[in-house]
Predict the 3D structure of the following.
Amino acid sequence: MTKSKKYILTLSVMMTMALMAMAQKPENILAAAGSPPNPKVPISWNRYHDNTALEEICRKMVAAHPGLVSMASIGKSVEGRELWMLTITDREQGSADRKPAAYIDGGIHANEIQGVEFALYIAWYVTEMHAAGNPFFKQLLAEKTFYIAPSINPDSRDHFIHNPNTQNSSRSGQKPVDNDRDGLVDEDDFDDLNGDGHITQMRRKSPYGEYVLDPQDPKRLIPAGEGQKGEYELLGYEGIDNDGDGLVNEDGAGGYDPNRDWGWNWQPNYIQGGAYKYPFSLPENRAVADFFLSHPNIGAAQSFHNTGGLLLRGPGAQEDEPNFTRDDIAVYDALGKKGEELIPGYRYIVTYKDLYSVYGGEFDWMHGARGVFAMSNELWNANFYFNRQQGGGRSQADQYLFDQYLMFGDGFVEWKPYNHPQYGEIEIGGFKKNYGRLHPGFLLESDAHRNASFVIYHAYHTPKVAVADVEVVDAGGGLKQVTAVIKNERIIPTHSAHDIAHKIEVPDVVSLSGGTVVAGMVVENRDLGITTEQRNDPANIKVSNIPSNGITTVRWLVKGGDKFTVTVDSKKGGTASKSL
Amino acid sequence: MKKILLSLCVALLCGGSLRAQSNYSNRQQLAQRVNTLAKSYPQYVKTQSLAKTVGGSDIWMVTIGTGQTDQKPAIAVVGGVEGKHLLGVELAIGFAEKLLAGAVADSVRQLLDEQTFYVFPNMSPDATEQYFAALQYERSGNANKADYDRDGQTGEDGYDDLDGDGKITFVRVEDATGTHILNPDDPRSLIPADLAKGQAGQYLLFAEGIDNDKDGQFNEDGEEGIHFNKNATYRYRNFLPGAGEHAVSEVENRALFDFLYDAFNVYAVVAFGPYNNLSTPEQVGRSGGDEQPQLGRRPGGRKITSWSAQDAKANVFVSEQYNKITGTTGAPKTVAGEGSFAEWAYYHYGRFSFSTPGWWVPSVKADSTGRARGMGSSASDPVGAYLKWAASEGITNNFTEWKAIEHPDFPGKRVEVGGIHPFVLTNPPYALVDGIVGKHTDFVIALAGMAPKVDVLDLKTEKLDNGLTRVSLKVFNSGLLPNLTQVGERSYFLKRIAVNVQTTGNQQVLSGRKSQTLDAIGGRETVELSWLVQGSGKLSIKAGSVSSGTKTVEVTL
């Protein structure tokens, strides 16, 4: 195909798309500040997309931004769904895999479905702002790469969206597990008794119950007060004892936790509930790990979860404290505290101390095994219903109020009588699966944007290396002394302290061409002339790190040559050079 | 009759080919032995290649049993746990051969009706091939690429055959900073200089080779990859050379663990490898192990870092049987390494895990280094001890005399190549193998005789008024081993004993559960259960699990 033909084709594709996109003409629109004025891929950010819709959006992004976005499957899920990876960078400004990169994923816990939309929002926002000519994103995508795997547990995502579920199911993937150890797998799941697509609560009138109807809102049960007689008992989530073992809903779909399956500080299920057979025994995680291992340019990572309004860093378990040392904590603190500012109401915390202990978690592997600064965002917090700090059971009351006055009852299934085979006459009702842990629709885009801005900040602060200065002086005896200062202009170093301690990533290499290198050395103190010689291969000096917002200095003694080029090559920091 | 004759002939033929065996088996020979089993005993044997390694070797699995083998209590027998331990491969495949050759005996036939054996003869086939290669050296790693010294290059500084004899032995350098001295009892061997005794080292000692990549280390990053016996999850250590990128990163480990986790019928694992908890049993509550978390909400369960009293008690009598049947003594103390298979099999897989190297250099009297007293010979100077034993047995061709060479890393210094040959310290002369395999086969058969086995005793029916009957019974573990280890009690990858009451007609169970699962039952111990049933006629009660057998009793009300 000739270049002009290609151009025409692209133009016509763009025009068709533009026609579809523009129900209103651009001249009739004033952009809201900070949002793409006329997005090439219009998306409604107040609803959820299943894997089919997600894939369609990804394909539209690739078509609309051919120089920026590519997509590829990195593997298949248990049930054979593709695991899509979007690679986003300005390819005219260099290949994706040689630029410092941030990795983002969503939906490892598939019931936490807004994470997938948030990951997708980042892809959408950075590409649309780039397309709109925003100078920050023009530069960002010239320098950085985003690897975005929006949905890394797709089987259970579709299961959550299309099948009856609670707000908490299914965190697992869909590989069958015998949770109650009776020899049968997944034989006693929830049952959508009233057939409404949601697994809600069962309650029964009982003279021995512990609850009464809330006089303010009879949809809600509250504990009977002192001296008050209870009228209702709660019987748990909708279901029956399918296998006749005296337990209800005890062995449902799947039954493990994909975020306890990673190859760092892994422990089996009897210690760490949810662990499967061994690290990466789940194909979805193995695909992500393989991708990570073959992309050493990733220096930052974030994963989206819900809920609680938290920005989490490791360690997940106390035993891992020694692998989080001062310099690395300083980087996390700089990131996390900025995150708290950008997302008001979110708190930056340490997982094992402030939340709970986790063995074999995703960001612990990324930090521990790969030296990547990795965090996860626990999206949504009940404080946001009415912008108030919750306490003493207030959040549940607010959830009812919010449903009534801002969602007009759309989040609740009204209690209706039901004749249950084991419990007799009961009532079924309660909050729908898409309310409670998930944002109310109109708050989705706002929180997606704030979290995206934090991810973009994190990505921006992956290392940016440059050869800042090259000095040549006569060293006497026919030798020239060439000194080069390599700097890193960002918060994240090319090697974390943990990485340096365990030699995770190969050193950065600073090379000199021009003249004949007689000796090479790392300069420890330039003023006092303290250096450490590298005996082998002195033209290519290996430096263990180019630190956070800092410099590393190297020096050569050279015979001959009058034109010199200094090049730095860093797996996580990219490449740069300067000639003199 | 014809059938018996035929199998007799086959057995004789096999015996013939076995006698012809004069050395450890390479991968073609192992494949042949596996295939011969399948052909000779089609009624008992199924063979399968679970995976192909990076080096193109098969991971063989030999399933021995009858009928629905996955529904009968099973022992997994694993060889090649450590790549330089060729005897382990022989012990595993040899067990299969001798067990099946013995299947003409009624007792063995009955065992094969009741139980299943999964034999994995070689889990380190890429590594064991090095024994048969043009350049022979002790190798533990598979053919995967690995960067042992983490310098960004793989395989850039392996061994070098400086004397061109096809074996990697040792280099010693006379040097003022030496770490070793000559063993005064046998100057062919070197021992570490002991500063506490005022000994000044005279020699540097390292494996045969040069510093190919000029990084100051010798042979630190050769062509070998990941060790099967460092790649399991229990006490796995990241960044350890040979341990892999993460636990269970390797095809060999994944293939075996995937199979085993789904093999709910396995109650015990026998590992033929370096760790030994058969000569001396596990200690209860041994010190060390992982610290328990102090802060933060716990993720669920406590870490288990030693055998429970009940499990260790079982190990005591298994160990007694082992010592008696094999007649072995003086085994050196061993410590399981990080990420080892044998510890994984107990601490993470949750089965009884018994491990032995099968052979060690027989004890000799303490020598003048004085550290051998009351311990296995290899605790002091294993090379000296070996040479003494080998001399007494007339075993030769195991040592290369020290010979001076020019070494590029030590110009002007006296450098010699020589020393003990690879493999001889951990693998006996092949002539001894058949006897060792025979005794270990007898031991594994004896272990199978201790299997947990569900029985139902003292079934009673008591008529109460108005058509009500109380049915009671004892679920009895007639084996010697508990039906679950302490880990097995807690891990959902093991099945508990399930007890199900099958009612008929309009019978109603008014008290007691129609279906329930039980906690572990110790060897020779019982659990009493009872039900109140209304109605008349027959009902049946089934108790059991796939790893300890099932018993069904019929009751008439």
Summary: Chain A is about 25% helix and 25% strand. The first strand of chain A starts at residue 69 and ends at 76. The longest helix of chain A spans residues 441-460.
